[in-house]
Specification:
The complex is a heterotrimer of chains A (about 240), B (about 280) and C (about 350). Chain A has helices spanning about 15-20, 25-35, 60-75, 80-85, 100-105, 140-150, 160-170, 195, 215-220, 225-235, and strands spanning about 5-10, 35-40, 50-55, 75-80, 130. Chain A is of the alpha/beta class. In chain A, strands 2-1-3-4-5 form a 5-stranded parallel sheet, sandwiched between helices. In chain A, α3 (about 60-75) links the parallel β3 (about 50-55) and β4 (about 75-80). The radius of gyration of chain B is 19 Å and the shape is globular. In chain B, strands 10-9-8-7-11-12-15 form a 7-stranded mixed sheet, sandwiched between helices. Chain B has 2 domains: about 10-105, Translation factors (Elongation Factor Tu (Ef-tu), domain 3, Beta Barrel), CATH 2.40.30; about 115-240, Rossmann fold (3-Layer(aba) Sandwich), CATH 3.40.50. Chain C has about 350 residues and is an alpha+beta fold. Chain C has an 8-stranded mixed sheet. In chain C, strands 5-4-12-11 form a 4-stranded antiparallel sheet, with no helix packed on it. In chain C, α6 packs across α8 (about 280-295). Classes of the chains: A alpha/beta (about 240), B alpha/beta (about 280), C alpha+beta (about 350). At the B-C interface, β13 of B face β4, β5, α2, α3 and β11 of C. The complex binds flavin-adenine dinucleotide, iron/sulfur cluster (2 copies) and FE2/S2 (inorganic) cluster.
Chain lengths: ~240, ~280, ~350
Amino acid sequence: MKPQVAFFDFTSCEGCQLNKLNFENDLLDILKHVDIVEFREAMDDKADHYDIAFIEGSITSPSCVERIHDIRRRSDILVALGSCAVNGGVNAMKNLHPIDEVRETVYGDDKYLFATLPAMAVSSVVKVDYEVRGCPMTQQDFLKLLIALVLGKQPPKYGSPVCVECKLKENECLYNRGMVCLGPITRGGCDAVCPSFGQFCTGCRGILDNPNIDGMLEVMTSHGISLDEAKKRMLLYNSNEVQL
Amino acid sequence: MKRLQDVEHHETEDLYYPTMCKVTGAKQITEMEKWYELEMPEGQSLGHGPGQFVEVSAFGIGEAPISISSSPSKNGKFELCIRQVGTLTNVLKNYETGDMMGIRGPFGKGFPMEKLFGKDILVVAGGIGLVPLRSLINYVLDNRKDFGRLIILYGAKTPSELLFTDELETWKDRDDVELHVTVDQPDETWKGNTGVITTLIPSLDLKLNTTIAAITGPPVMYKFVVMSLKSKQLPDDQIYLSLERRMKCGVGKCGHCQINGVYCCQDGPVFNYVDIKPLEEAL
Amino acid sequence: MECFSLLRSDVPALIDHLRDFGEVIAPHGKGDVSYSFEVVRDSSDVVLDYNRTLLPLKKMFLPPVEKLMGFSLKNESFEQVEVAIAPRVFFGVHSYEMQSILRLDHSMLSGSAESNYFKRRQSSRFLGISFEPDEFHFSESVGIVIEEMEGFDLFLNEVDGDFQLYVLTDNGQEMLNGFDKINLTEPEIVEGRHFKKKIRYHYNRLPRVFQYAYHSDVWADVASRCVGCGACTLTCPTCFCFDVHDHVEVTAEDGMRQRSWDSCMLSTFAEVAGGENFREKTINRTRHRLFRKFKYITDEEGLPWCVGCGRCTAFCPAGISMPDIVNELIQEDEKAQYHRTVRV
Ligand SMILES: Cc1cc2nc3c(=O)[nH]c(=O)nc-3n(C[C@H](O)[C@H](O)[C@H](O)COP(=O)(O)OP(=O)(O)OC[C@H]3O[C@@H](n4cnc5c(N)ncnc54)[C@H](O)[C@@H]3O)c2cc1C
Ligand code: SF4
Ligand code: SF4
Ligand code: FES
């Protein structure tokens, strides 16, 4: 029997879901391997058990916590999709401010009507088996994971920086064009898609293990941005991962 | 320096194509390790020496270096024993008799058997280190009169992690084998030695001029075993170690296995201690 | 050896002429300020004055990503890859680049001689060109002058804006047959092209410096600035490390085994299953990189394995300079020697 898979979304822009629906060419191939039993934006089925649950978005409220526990209980394999789910992503920027301030800014006088928590990675609430990083995640990367799971193989883990793929494509380094890029310390696997289109890397796939943060700040500031700006850029997707 | 004009076309090799070998036997022997017997396509022999390794592959999954565990004296077939620790090894877990495995090799330098003939052989195996050393042990046993004493020290974390327990029993029963087994964490049924493998060394009675030590184990083990052997005054050049490094190609090209300037896959994995002593990255 | 004069304006005609001998590959502009070797479509696109290409010419013999075999998961079988042996002419190559190819030959062909590399390397012809060193080139310090012609069939030496064309081999001679825009001339020595960057010692003194450099404090300083991006090694013309991985199509039926350039500067390079990392710290990796260039292979082959192209320095986002590291090691060694002598 084909594995039963489901997609769930929490706090995110749902960019990752849309990305999946763009598959068109590949969707039929995917459906050869798996049965999609729950897909919030595509169909209404519900099931008691999932072989693979794909989770999008970060955990930001007590009800999210309850729901993710419930999904985890019903799933054999749980995969976090996209940077919100993997490490809190952009949502986690709010964690840099006192939670009350955040509620006030977002909800104004109604702030006490809405329970909110710091934006958390799914993995800080339940066990996450695998992850697909990126904001949004790329189709390619998602497919790699899916194929790996179908083959019974561990999905790829990316331990090299974006610069590696950037170099292999022989891109002109954006530092040579006077830009400041996070490629050197950002987890690769995206095929350096942003630098390839002249857009500097914003770190959406997370920071590598054991990064040289001071060294990176020095690189950034010596290429013309202020220390403040450099830190802000580093935190954009990685407030939960980097201590500055 | 090798130059292009020094090389003839026929001297070049297709280095990365595997030979598809049929699995003729497979058995999960511990919780983490599975044993396999394989056969070359035309039943030819693999042509390895004790201590050499092959690159094992499964299409779509990847490749990994694995020691050859059987003795070259075993004809027609060869054996592997693989611990399930990562991508490929966990997929190989599902391989059974009849499946096909990709094999490249044998690669690397094994034990220099010509230097071992006539000598007392002291085997020091930590954990999965018994896998390559089993090839040496069985070779010695198959050619028993060509060697002096055979002393085997074998350490595992727990009794349930001991490999090749049937063979351990036969070795124990032979009076031309001195087998000492120890575990770090005994369970209720364990009656043997406890403690790390180095605890077995002090009480050994070695003939220093004729003993050759062969060591394989986890990275942390080497330093301590070598220290213990040195405190027994065993000369450096009588110590051989089989080292593990990350490997990709197995043929001295990909650079992954370097230990300072030497290639573990070509100059090793079995090294004489004298040759690696000066290498800071070795032990 | 014959020498001809050639007008700069006639170079495109020469390139067009060379296309009779195979695909011509030459430097082209890339991005705002960079260059790369590309197959020539229009000879007027070829750049004659360039500092260095982003990726070295190595990419034409050992491609950044290369299919090693195709496979079918269903049939548990693989398909060999045919490596085409088409004749190619490499135009406008700098002397250090040619020297890097000669070193790469050694790396790929000694021990087990790799057929993929050999096939690509066969039937290639090289036309060299002189260059004006910028602030990063230091090849003279590793024994390679601008006019070093070893390995070339033809060489263009710029003299007052135009060129002198040296014919160095029979192949070179053959390539000029029927090309009439050249005139026999006397070779001239060009003055005034100087390397701005230098290693302070002659390269034959470096093995001794490196013999004592293993525990130098210099490594820690470099490691504190290095962000571990791998750019230095990925753009190096004599680096050849690679990784191998399997790629499977969405059908989960077919796929291919590929190799791609890897870098010993990446933290995962020497990591094995279970988490043991044999070169865990940046210090270990930086040192390994430099020792690979100036000690390990050099001890055996008698040549530095660095050709002074300056890529690792020019493309390092942290501005870490290879020759500066070597000079610091030299300085440290001098100090240590001084202290040794004073004590005696
Ligand atoms: C000479 C030699 C002999 C070995 N003999 C055996 C043996 O007989 N039995 C056994 O169970 N194991 C052996 N190993 C270890 C075995 O190679 C690794 O456990 C295996 O590579 C893990 O692969 P993986 O794909 O499951 O793990 P991953 O962590 O997914 O590894 C991915 C890749 O990294 C490389 N790699 C990872 N770990 C190692 C490692 N320890 N050594 C070398 N390359 C590595 C391989 O190319 C591997 O395919 C040996 C290693 C070496 C160097
Ligand atoms: S553009 Fe960014 S990712 Fe590409 S090499 Fe430069 S720093 Fe690295
Ligand atoms: S290019 Fe510079 S920062 Fe990047 S790994 Fe090399 S030395 Fe380190
Ligand atoms: S494993 Fe590739 S060089 Fe040794």
